[in-house]
User: Which sequence fits this backbone?
């Protein structure tokens, strides 16, 4: 109805606004770096010492830490993108009414949607970058294709942020966010993160392959271990479509909520 | 010259509720135009449609010659909005609120910063530039919201109840700033349920009640058309007022009995109160005053503006 400029040309303004806000609170962002390292140390190396090598298929096998680290990186990209697209977005949407003021300017709902999703994925990417550097330093990166793991993490951040944003527009109270944990925890545990998908019986494998983080894990693991194949393109396509779909729904939801 | 805003049959519905029911009005460039009406009359709904943040349900609306349904961003680029409830960014400082708002309008940081400093001086908030927004007083927040609306140097400023909830001193400061803006040629459209505000600021206004426009004109015209020059306000002991009604009828052009007082509408208030005295009626108090828009509203709707 109320048309916005196409493609959210002014989306970057929201990012500028968030940078201004975080300029004072960057320490909060910093704290998010550490969680995945604890998992890497505890599970990747600790449990890894009991597990030994894991087969990647095609006669290719790697130490457990090399297997788990890319999955943790994918999970980091997802979690990092969810901070700002869930709790923080909810606060701005329902309490601070941040967008009521924004939408009285030339910016439209598409700008807000794209701006906030981009901001959220930036945070996920930042954590992923930190994690990737540590992975490389610990010798857990065994292929130069790992350079593409960062854009891959950005893509995971994009689809996670877009889906998180859509979910947030449907939330009514803080307790509703328990749902985020109910969804993300199984994703983090069962997306072929800590064990290969071959562990599952065939029907369950098919189901896991429908879920988003599985594709994120598969993509990053393929890149950091150099285990390439056409399946990675499927992963990319899945994540791009999911993100684009989430973005489009977000615009519609914001329109519905804010431009009555 | 084409009007800056033109509405014909403008309608807003929320489900079954009709918030704005087919209203017509034009706002000319450079004038201060008001919507006067009680809570729920449809003022905010109208303002949001003009500011193109709320879709028009029916009728036509042109703002700056553009249709909000297709040119929302272009309209919003040239309109400054002071919403009924402040929507300041609580996560930013006073000055940052202005600068980032300037960025939303595509100003450079240098230009936004320059205008922010100018505007902070204009609304007397320079000393608070670096402070957070939350602890500011209501009047300060309102002034900051007005400054924010001006950062883009808009052709049209929309003010939804700019002074509601403020103390008299804060209101007068705001009126003074708005008056200066008007002198600079900024077109002001404001809503209010304060008749003194409407009289002070508006060249022309419409009186709204229950989603419709019930009268329009300048404050002076409206008073001349719907009221008398003067009003005598009488207060009686409880229960005495009703019994007075018949006896008061001959003393004025029109008599209005309200729960707490009786109003005599007359061209000459002093003559009416003298006649009252002669006829032996002794109210607890008698006050002669000029007619106001409150009287116009009462006449048109049978109710007070602020209930
Ligand atoms: N977003 C909304 N959803 C449903 N009803 C609304 C909404 N906004 C306003 N209304 C209703 O529309 C009517 C007019 O409201 P409003 O335009 O805010 O009047 P005013 O500003 O004159 O007080 C009221 O009955 C109000 O409850
Ligand atoms: Mg209102």
Assistant:
């Amino acid at each position: 109805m109320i048309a916005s400029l196409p493609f959210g040309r002014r989306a970057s303004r929201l990012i500028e606004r968030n940078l201004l806000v975080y300029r004072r609170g960057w320490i909060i962002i910093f704290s998010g770096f550490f969680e995945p390292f604890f998992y890497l140390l505890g599970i990747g190396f600790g449990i890894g010492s009991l597990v030994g090598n894991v087969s990647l298929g095609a006669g290719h096998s790697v130490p457990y830490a090399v297997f788990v680290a890319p999955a943790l990186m994918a999970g980091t990209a997802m979690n990092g993108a969810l901070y700002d697209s869930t709790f923080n977005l909810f606060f701005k949407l329902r309490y601070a009414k941040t967008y009521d003021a924004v939408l009285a300017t030339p910016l439209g709902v598409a700008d807000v949607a794209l701006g906030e999703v981009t901001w959220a994925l930036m945070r996920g990417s930042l954590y992923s970058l930190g994690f990737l550097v540590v992975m490389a330093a610990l010798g857990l990166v065994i292929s130069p294709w790992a350079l593409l793991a960062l854009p891959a993490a950005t893509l995971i951040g994009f689809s996670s942020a877009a889906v998180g944003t859509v979910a947030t527009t449907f939330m009514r109270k803080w307790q509703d966010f328990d749902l985020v944990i109910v969804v993300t925890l199984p994703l983090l545990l069962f997306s072929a993160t800590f064990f290969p998908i071959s562990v599952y019986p065939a029907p369950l494998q098919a189901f896991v392959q429908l879920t988003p983080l599985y594709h994120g894990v598969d993509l990053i693991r393929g890149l950091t271990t150099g285990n390439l194949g056409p399946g990675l393109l499927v992963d990319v396509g899945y994540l791009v479509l999911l993100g684009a779909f989430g973005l489009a729904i977000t615009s519609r939801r914001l329109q519905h909520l804010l431009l009555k | 010259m084409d009007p800056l805003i033109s509405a014909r049959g403008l309608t807003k519905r929320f489900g079954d509720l009709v918030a704005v029911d087919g209203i017509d009005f034009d706002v000319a460039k450079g004038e201060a135009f008001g919507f006067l009406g009680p809570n729920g009359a449809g003022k905010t709904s109208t303002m949001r449609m003009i500011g193109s943040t709320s879709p028009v349900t029916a009728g036509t609306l042109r703002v700056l010659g553009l249709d909000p349904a297709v040119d929302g961003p272009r309209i919003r680029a040239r309109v400054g909005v002071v919403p009924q409830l402040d929507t300041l960014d609580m996560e930013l400082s006073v000055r940052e609120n202005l600068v980032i708002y300037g960025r939303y309008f595509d100003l450079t940081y240098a230009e936004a910063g320059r205008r922010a400093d100018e505007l902070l001086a204009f609304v007397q908030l320079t000393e608070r530039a670096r402070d957070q927004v939350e602890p500011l007083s209501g009047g300060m927040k309102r002034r900051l919201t007005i400054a924010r609306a001006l950062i883009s140097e808009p052709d049209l400023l929309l003010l939804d109840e700019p002074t509601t909830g403020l103390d008299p001193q804060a209101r007068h400061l705001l009126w003074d700033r708005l008056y200066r803006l008007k002198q600079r040629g900024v077109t002001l459209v404001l809503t209010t349920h304060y008749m003194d505000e409407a009289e002070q600021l508006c060249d022309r206004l419409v009186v709204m009640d229950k989603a419709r426009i019930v009268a329009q004109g300048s404050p002076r015209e409206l008073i001349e058309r719907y009221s008398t020059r003067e009003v005598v306000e009488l207060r009686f002991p409880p229960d005495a007022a009703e019994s007075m009604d018949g006896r008061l009828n001959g003393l004025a052009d029109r008599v209005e009995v309200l729960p707490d007082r009786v109003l005599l509408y007359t061209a000459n208030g002093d003559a009416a109160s003298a006649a009252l005295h002669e006829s032996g009626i002794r109210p607890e108090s008698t006050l002669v005053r000029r007619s106001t828009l409150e009287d116009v509203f009462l006449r048109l709707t049978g109710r007070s503006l602020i209930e």
Remarks:
- Chain B has eleven helices and 13 strands.
- The pocket of adenosine-5'-diphosphate (ligand 1) is lined by residues A 260; B 14, 17, 19, 37, 39-45 (CB under 6 Å).
- Chain B touches chain A through 33 residues (CB under 8 Å).
- Chain B has a mean pLDDT of 92.
